[in-house]
Amino acid sequence: AAHCRRLPRTPSSVVVERPCFLAMSHLHRRGVATTTGIRPLSGDLSEEERRAVTEDMSEEELAIFDLLTQPDPVLDDAERSTVKAGAKRLLEHLHDKLVLDWRRRTATVADVRVTIKEVLDNELPADPYPPVVFDAKVQAVFDHVISAYGDDGCSVYSDAGVPDLATAVDTAVASDTDLDTITEEVIARIKQDAEFASKVAEQLGMASPSLRTVDELITNDEDSAVEFKSTARWDLRENTASRLIEDAVVKTVTGFLNSDGGTLLIGVGPDRQPVGLDADYSRVKPPNGDGFVNWLTTHLIHALDHTAASHVRARIVEHGGREICRVDVGRSARPLLAKTSLKEGVFFVRLNNSTRALPVDEQATYIAEHWPGAAR
Fold first, then answer.
1. CA 111, CA 134: separation in Å to the nearest integer?
2. CA distances, 293 to each of 90, 290, 304 (Å)
3. Who's near 179: CB < 8 A, 6+ residues apart?
4. pLDDT value at position 113?
5. Predicted pLDDT of residue 171
6. How far apart are the C-alpha atoms of 174 and 71, rounded to whole Å?
């Protein structure tokens, strides 16, 4: 029955309440075992500790189980047992993949997401988990894994734990130091977890689009640092491949690089609705997110250069039941000229919510203002 969920996904409106995993981690540190058959001698147990004992699950298994069952769906006893077993099997699969620096490798992160989806598709009972609910659960579990498991083998379930956002930021502010005081672990998490990054931005009073969630970017609409494009290679109106569509991506990215940076969402239409990347996937090899990001990187290298492309970070994310590409672009330390299919040496800049080719007679002034002392 698992194959029933392999239908086109519909936009999800399900809100999944996530347990406080950092608070739960004290169960492990107190040495309360559950699956081994050892029972705590102390009667002073928290509700989560008592639940772990009652359910005969470790705390990390219980965390996955809670994500899969709270606040919905309503399950009977047989279904609860099935989901409980599924949570345990999922962790068995994931432990083999959460290797050193796993969150810093695009392919490994993608593999973790695929594993979560495939294992849950095989393990969860179909009726209580229709596509909308199933997609929400997959995303919730993936978000939890990204946040709870570090790159060096630590997790919120180990004694070391994962560096905490508030502690890292507060320490940096209190000591009046720069970002170097924030651990590499926190920086890596910021890069991988958009929701976590948004919270960092909120605490630091920053409004950079690269630190906003996809929902926040779309709700805010296009502006000087945010742009949406339905596709990167395919003309939806003409139903054909288009060099001009490819040029439009180069134009936007170069405009961000020559201005103050920004974020491009590919697979989102002008009406702010997710279009997805299926049309573009048909033009890349392999026809999936990995192939698309590889093509985009090569495309930008050819249009600009390797150094410029290194300021661009592209990753595939899910929104509204569809895959889209989030492209975060930093500000270039030097002025850049782009090569398109029609012309070479184009100086694109971002002006309000559009990207324009700056006239030659205005380029010297713009460069002097944005890169004092820069020589072209």
1. 18
2. 27, 5, 16
3. 172, 187
4. 87
5. 35
6. 38
Rounded to the nearest angstrom, the gap between the alpha carbon of residue 314 and the centroid of all alpha carbons in its chain is: 10
Three-state SS across the chain? CHHHHCCCCCCCCCCCCCCCHHHHCHHHHCCCCCCCCCCCCCCCCCHHHHHHHHHCCCHHHHHHHHHHHCCCCCCCHHHHHHHHHHHHHHHHHHHCCCCCCHHHCHHHHHHHHHHHHHHHHHHCCCCCCCHHHHHHHHHHHHHHHHHHECCCCCECCCCCCCCCHHHHHHHHHHCCCCHHHCCHHHHHHHHHCHHHHHHHHHHHCCCCHHHCCHHHHHHHCCECCEEEECCCCEECCCCEECHHHHHHHHHHHHHHHCCCCEEEEECECCCCCECCCHHHHCCCCCCCHHHHHHHHHHHHHHHCCHHHHCCEEEEEEEECCEEEEEEEECCCCCCCCECCCCCCCECEEEECCEEEECCHHHHHHHHHHHCCCCCC
Q: Is 161 exposed, middle or buried (0-12, 13-18, 19+ CB in 10 A)?
A: middle
- Comparing C-alpha atoms, which of 148, 78, 75, 89 is closest to residue 118? 89
**Distance in angstroms (rounded) separating the CA atoms of residues 254 and 356:** 10
Which amino acid is residue 103, in one-letter code? R
Measured distance CA(197)–CA(319) in Å, rounded: 17
Residue with tokens 């406080």: 20
Beta-ladder partners of 241: 234
Token look-up 């490798």 returns 105
Residue found by looking up tokens 């004092």 in the block:
372
Cis before 73 (ω within 30): yes
pLDDT score for 103: 74
CA distance 35 to 158: 17
Ranges of residues in the chain with a pLDDT under 50 are 1-42, 160, 162-183, 205-207, 376
**Of how many residues is the chain composed?**
376
355: which strand partners?
A: 350
Distance CA 320, CA 323 (A): 8
